[in-house]
Amino acid sequence: MKLKKFSWFFVLLFILIGCSSGERNEKDLIYKKEINKWRNRRITNLKRDNGWLNLVGLYWLKQGANTFGSDKANDIVFPSGAPKLIGKFILNGNSITAKINNGVDVFHKGSKVTTITLKDDMSPEATVLAVGPFRFFVIKRGDRYGIRLRNLDAPLVKNFKGIKYFPIDKKWRVKAKFEKYNTPKILSIPTEIGTIEEDTSFGRLKFNIDGKTYGLDPINADKKFFIILADETSGSETYGGGRFLYASKPDSTGTTIIDFNKAYNPPCAFTKFATCPLPPKNNYLKMKITAGEKVYGHGH
Fold first, then answer.
1. pLDDT digits (tens, 9 = 90+) for 21-77
2. What DSSP element (H or E) covers 185?
3. Rounded to two decimals, what is the model's pTM?
4. Residues in CB range of 176: below 8 A, 6 or more apart
5. Into which CATH architecture does domain 55-153 fall?
6. In Å, how far are 156, 183, 246, 249, 254 from 222, measured between CA atoms?
7. Could you tell me if 276 and 192 are in contact, meaning their C-beta atoms sit under 8 angstroms apart?
């Protein structure tokens, strides 16, 4: 009788272990589907008309007139395929006007333009002009103004072969505690174009991996945190200029989740025509984050 009870105990134990293992496998499968869905959405966004893969030019403006078009006599030389002599950008202090030459069809929101004042990308809505498959608009970086050029038929969009990733691993989905600074910290953020930008961090995200404590200074981005980070894979397995990551704002206990499986390449990993921020000094992690996106191609 005792032996029978003993046998039923082990049967029940095996059932419980099996149920627990099955639930765990199901949760892992759901998590992998979530990450793969995130990856697919990321690729779709890169390929969009306002994505990063179709950038083909970045031209800094000088004060006064800046002629532009594909002819090499222009101050700003667009790629072949664009009209040879499109017009000129006139930079007067902080004001930029585009004057289009006669016989050239340039459009803004579907209407042909001849003279138009351009709003830069720091405005709620930048002025985007179109000529053939090309789209161009003004960007403001510090006290500099430039023209960013897209080609909706860019070869990189057509030939894009996707991104390589580290294996999905829940180890890299970690709880983090947000510790507020007594006084908000001003972050000095270098950029790929050699400028320094400043932003504010209101606290530090502290988390543990393999028994060690690490921290990152996030930046407010609407309802989320935006993080620019580097680690010991940067420059080898991952992009040398670091990676980006979003995290939810902390809950009432000051806790949030950092999921390094969603760490992604900045635009400069794909194109030399972007102006990416680099990790601030306190966001260099002395460890290898073998999660998220790997370096694309040879980088830039």
1. 666 788 889 999 999 999 999 999 999 999 999 999 999 999 999 999 999 999 999
2. strand 173-190
3. 0.87
4. 205, 206, 207, 216, 247, 255, 256, 257, 258
5. Sandwich (2.60)
6. 31, 20, 11, 10, 17
7. yes
Question: CB neighbours (10 Å) of residue 167?
Answer: 9
Q: What does the alpha-carbon distance between residue 91 and residue 86 come to, in Å, rounded to a whole number?
A: 16
DSSP per-residue string spanning 165-180: BPPP-GGGEEEEEEEE
Rounded to whole angstroms, the Cα distance separating 91 from 106 reads: 19
Residue pLDDT, tens place only, 160-212: 989 999 999 999 999 999 999 999 999 999 999 999 999 999 999 999 999 99
- Helix (H) or strand (E) holding 214, with range, is strand 212-216
Domain ranges of the chain: 28-49+161-283, 55-153
- Tokens 């999905």, located at residue: 168
